[in-house]
Amino acid sequence: MFPATTYTARRKQLATDVQSGLIFLPGNAEAPMNYAGNTYPFRQDSNFRYFAGHNIPDLALTIDAASGASRLWGDDISLNHVVWMGEQPSVAELAARIGAERGGSLAELSTVLKTYAKEVKFLPPYRADRKTYLKEHLATLFPTGMGENAGANKGLIRAVINQRSIKSSEELEQMSIAVRTSMDMHAAAKTHAAPGQLEHEVAGLIEGMAIAGGGRLAYAAIVTKNGQILHNHYHGNTLQKGDLLLIDAGAEATSGYAGDITRTFAIGQPLTTKQEEIYRIVDRAKRESIAAARPGVKNRTLHDNAGRTIFSGLKDLGLTKGNPDEAVAAGAHALFMPHGLGHMIGLDVHDMEDLGEDLVGYDENTRRSTQFGTSSLRLGRELEKGFAITVEPGIYFIPALIDQWKADKICADFINFDKLKAYYDFGGIRLEDDIAITASGSRLL
Amino acid sequence: MFPATTYTARRKQLATDVQSGLIFLPGNAEAPMNYAGNTYPFRQDSNFRYFAGHNIPDLALTIDAASGASRLWGDDISLNHVVWMGEQPSVAELAARIGAERGGSLAELSTVLKTYAKEVKFLPPYRADRKTYLKEHLATLFPTGMGENAGANKGLIRAVINQRSIKSSEELEQMSIAVRTSMDMHAAAKTHAAPGQLEHEVAGLIEGMAIAGGGRLAYAAIVTKNGQILHNHYHGNTLQKGDLLLIDAGAEATSGYAGDITRTFAIGQPLTTKQEEIYRIVDRAKRESIAAARPGVKNRTLHDNAGRTIFSGLKDLGLTKGNPDEAVAAGAHALFMPHGLGHMIGLDVHDMEDLGEDLVGYDENTRRSTQFGTSSLRLGRELEKGFAITVEPGIYFIPALIDQWKADKICADFINFDKLKAYYDFGGIRLEDDIAITASGSRLL
Predict the structure, then answer these.
(1) Which GO MF terms are attached to this record (chains A, B) (predicted)?
(2) Which pLDDT does position A142 carry in this prediction?
């Protein structure tokens, strides 16, 4: 946790921005796995953690926007619970540690919320238990049901995004810790992975290291010889000599901040010439993107530039053809990189995704593309000093997608479909780093 | 997965037992962690897995109890999803693998459920998203709201408990795999744990091994030098030479079956005489319990016997006094072992806890005790051939509890409170094995 002054200052800023109403930031509860008593590892809500610090279930924060008064709500534990859970600090102590007042029990909070229903401002819920809670307590705010972001306060969402988008030096320091653990995980995986192993042996090594570091994984690791399947969480394949192994894995520091790193290497031998040709294109796209990242540059521009680098590199190999600018405008690069170049990172690996991807990554000057591939870019808007983002270009050969484009003659002027046959079993390569935007450029975290 | 015939036979038995209505067994969905798209590792619902096998989210099984017709419901994925998720078997293929018919899409299931609402029979939901789903689809079954087990069908609960309580040889084999991985985890922890390490370094080693084995942990590991805190998931302490380290951790096999093993050892040196004296009592209680476990014996009897062994052992050390039978009847042993001797284990570490602890662990011949400590015993009833259970006696010195009993003169005739002062910093020792009840006794899994 940061010092109390950090949280006090954040809440003061939020109250100033929101101006009126009761800001309600519930912390997360435990999440049942296979029965109520067997829960997943506790993960605090990131907004609660940003403004209230504590990584403990069943707390809630309220901020009276007009007066700025902050209250922490929760139940103190009984002696019976002490036997099972050990001595725990009282809610009053927890409140003092973040410069807030003790509010009262959760039952009392319940009454307060119901009383002030129309003045309560909250963020979009993403867990079912929270949706149910909000619906029960604030029914009047949901006249048309609980659709996407229904009832959530837009002004509050904006204010939170504005604050959380700009990382302080103490936040960047925590992210560097997460990235360092993540890099250690990747280094160990590369040393350890060998022919004959199963993917989940490598996955276990990685996840164990994240936990040994005092946190956990920031997201489910991708550890696959089928890198062309973008969100592949199957880890049952046996690694063979020469297989490309794509690992997308990041640790979450004890403080909750995420790392998000991807590496791709060959099992038991150096990259073959064919693999290295593709690797170098991806690596070039990554290095160029990082070199070009600075305040005032749109991340959408970096994405398009990376697309051009990828298209041109593949053209050098004879896999694509035609004018690179026209090809990228037509979206031809997306056959090989059907995802975005990167996204914000912070307390969440896709930072603030619960608040709405477009509100976080786009604004009135930069609208999301509707083109296949680029439409998946989470962050398009101008970079600002203090942003922390991922840079993660990739090249994949996805047989089902290639077959479809070929059959439907999509971007047929730019793709040498016949040449791609030799790459149907190639897999995919992605390389990803995390950077902070500085006053004049960027730096690796 | 087991062969299709296993699931067909299980469903046939269930339909026979339940006789009428539409049995509705929804599989689990993904569970959001810090936003909707960042989910916890998927954990299938154990009842769904028992009757439908598949470890895939967003499926549902229905069984027409009268006709026995089984249908698997789910949505096939689109090409766009193939890019992200890879080729997936169709729902029709998944249905065939478990000897069921394809039902239809989830939207179609939704309509069917609403139409047949009053004839739909389901089990108690434990996840909030499932509660919401049931409430929306089967509102007529919840005239008085969604309280504990509201709306769930008692006959179905009984029938499922009856089947799942008796483990087949193929199930016991899977549990042995889970126990073997769990034993490897404990062996590695004992080899690896050393003075200067943090608890979470050992926790990472253990959890990584569970994942490397192809499954995950069956429950959040306890890795603590404060074993007297029974459900202690804080792993931030530094291990020092001579500290007792209590590790309660079990792997879940790829098939979903759980192991649940506890070991306690000293860091960097053998147990001290004082530690060994306590260890031997716990070990004796464990060995005696396993030796006495057989069909027809009540687990409550084993629990009471273990309490007597613990009380008598501590009496030999001068920490307790008086007649052991009277002491156990008064509940004096619970000052040292405030939990139960064990519970059923299977697809859940506390097997079928979602169906109701008392329905699983007690019956008309064995009612749950209301006495502190013994009231926490999850399994009291007569053991039967095919039961799989844990045996986990422990002795803990819990200062807050000792102080309370002393102040309130609880069991003052049986406890030498003054002698306990020398044990305030002792911690706790628990030893736990998993056994299967055989025709004439039991065997270690």
Answers:
(1) aminopeptidase activity
(2) 62
* H or E stretch at A251: strand A251-252
- Examine the pLDDT at A102 and tell me if it is beyond 70: yes
Beta strands in A258-369 (DSSP E): 261-266
Q: Which residue of B has its CA nearest to A217?
A: B40
Tens digit of each residue's pLDDT (9 = 90 or more) over A114-161: 888 778 999 999 999 999 898 888 876 666 655 555 678 999 999 999
Work out the end-to-end distance of chain A between its first and last CA atoms, rounded to an integer number of angstroms. 20
Residue B143 to residue A67: CA distance in whole angstroms: 43
Residue B34 is inside which H or E element, if any?
strand B32-35
State percent of chain B over pLDDT 70: 97
Looking at the predicted structure, is the pLDDT value of residue B76 above 70? Answer: yes
- Residues forming a β-bridge with A120: A22
pLDDT tens by residue, A169-187: 999 999 999 999 999 999 9
Q: What does the alpha-carbon distance between residue B34 and residue B40 come to, in Å, rounded to a whole number?
A: 9
Cα–Cα distance between A142 and A199 in angstroms, integer?
Answer: 46
Going by pLDDT thresholds of 50, 70 and 90, the confidence category of residue A84 is: confident
Which of the four pLDDT bands, split at 50, 70 and 90, describes residue B331?
very high
- CB contact (8 A) between residue A82 and residue B128: no
- Are the Cβ atoms of B37 and A230 closer than 8 angstroms? no
pLDDT value at residue B140: 67
CA–CA distance, A59 with A65 (Å, rounded to integer): 19
> CB distance A204–B220 less than 8 Å?
no
10 Å CB burial of residue B19 (0-12, 13-18, 19+) is exposed
pLDDT band at B142 (very low <50, low <70, confident <90, very high): low
Contact B186, B194 (CB under 8 A): no
> Going by CATH, does the domain composed of B4-165 fall within 3.40.350.10?
yes
Is B83 a residue whose pLDDT tops 90?
no
- The token pair at A85 is 């859970």
Q: Which CATH class is domain A169-444?
A: alpha beta
Contacts of A220 in chain B (CB under 8 A): 39, 41
CA distances from A337 to A155, A340, A373 (A): 35, 8, 7
Question: Which of chain A's residues have a Cβ under 8 Å away from the Cβ of B347?
Answer: 34
Mutate to test the interface with B, among A1, A30, A35 (most CBs of B within 10 A): A35
Q: Which of A32, A86, A348 is opposite residue B34, by nearest beta carbon?
A: A348
Residue A47 · residue A153 · CB < 8 Å: no
Q: Nearest by CB to A204, which of B200, B208, B347?
A: B208
Q: Do B214 and A205 touch (CB under 8 A)?
A: no
**DSSP letters for B209-231:** HHHHTTSEESSPPEEES-TTSTT
- Cβ-Cβ contacts under 8 Å between A and B: the total is 174
Domain range list for chain A: 4-165, 169-444
